[in-house]
Amino acid sequence: MRTGARSTRGAAALVGLAVLAAVTGGALGAPAAAEEGTPPGRVEFPTHCLPPQEAGLPPAEGPTTARITVDDPAPKAGDTVTVTYQLASTPAANPVPGVLPADVLTPTGRVVLGGAQQGEVTVVGAQRNDPVAAGEKLPGVTMTGTFTVTAPGVITLAPGGYTLHTRHLGDLDTVCAPAAPAPVSERLTATPLPTANLRTLALRSAYGNPGAAVAVTGVGFVPGAAVTVAGRAGAAETADRVAATADATGTVRAELPVRDRATTGVVAYEGTGWSAQRGSGVAAYTVIGAVAGPAGAQKVTAVVEPGALAMTQAGDSVTLGGVPYGDGGTAPGRIAAVTVTDARGGPAGWSLVGKVTDFTGPGGVRIPGASLSWTPSCMAAAGSPSRCAAGSPGAVGAEGAVLASTPDAAVVGGTFTVDAGVRLRVPPYTPPGAYTAVLTLTLS
Length: 444
Fold this sequence. Notes:
The chain is mainly β. It folds into three domains: 7-22 and 307-443; 43-184, Immunoglobulin-like (Sandwich), CATH 2.60.40; 207-287, Immunoglobulin-like (Sandwich), CATH 2.60.40. The protein has no helices and 33 strands. β15 (226-233) and β16 form a beta hairpin. It starts with 6 loop residues before the first strand and ends with a strand. Residues 1-29 form the signal peptide.
């Protein structure tokens, strides 16, 4: 959307976002310490280790004892989880003929994801070890890494292969792989991002005589759902009601006869009653009509015409801060400010919802849209009847999140400035370059 462009209620504004550089890196951990007993999640699996050719040693066969832990066992889709892979013991031996000095061993490995999310997590450990005598087993190590949760459900984590790199008398790699898939060591249960309610309602006319039928159009409903269109007086429903069905696009069209003089608005909802999750906001409606007066009297009626719910935005592009390659980090920025004007009258509040696509970079490399989070803010102009509530800080993602809203109330309306700081988590070792996505803002 161009700067200053105006959007009617229910329409969407598009904002391009770009991050100029990418980076990552797993946190480095200390070697695993000896533990008494058997910690939860510790598993053992047969392992085949190939020593470096320069060592002249035969392959080593034997059990690996390992444990995987996570920093958050109940994340939301879009969250970043830190994974720790601890090797308590390995069949791999010192690959040099003499004593292996201290702090020359660097481990790397893989954690295998299963269940609701498939894939692997790369983990890395610090260059740290005690001296190892000739022919002795290499010591236990700790490796860490991160991954972004992309799907809700139970995700399993199992140990994968690992490489023990030593820098003494040359660079030597001992490569170890499970002889069979290792047992699951850890599980986490991811919950989906909350889904924004995009149900909205529009009336052909905002007023009419008692008994007049008002044309109602609703969008954002579940396709094929049974929908009730009803009159409202404050928080209560009136006697005006009609049934409708959403079409294949989720659109509802109905004619509602408004006979109850108490009706001050119209709502539409799925299910047995209106709720904030399955119902539209209130569209204001006024019942007018002739009132008997004394002989010779004339009734004088002035109608205040309701306006529109609309928004403008200060720009149509956002450039996030750069992230140096190899260090890992977060790309910060701020969306173009949005001005919401509510001149409808009546009791209906509004909601401004954002959704973001994946970030696409060089060679089609993607950063999930759920890696973008924001901290919204909202300010009402002086004299605005409604109070403005900023959305909760957190991930945006493709499912959508609320940027700002105003509640239903007896008197609503006003002008509001909406803003948000944004941060993009860039995954490990993302190739350098510009990564772009589209943030869509929908006002309803």
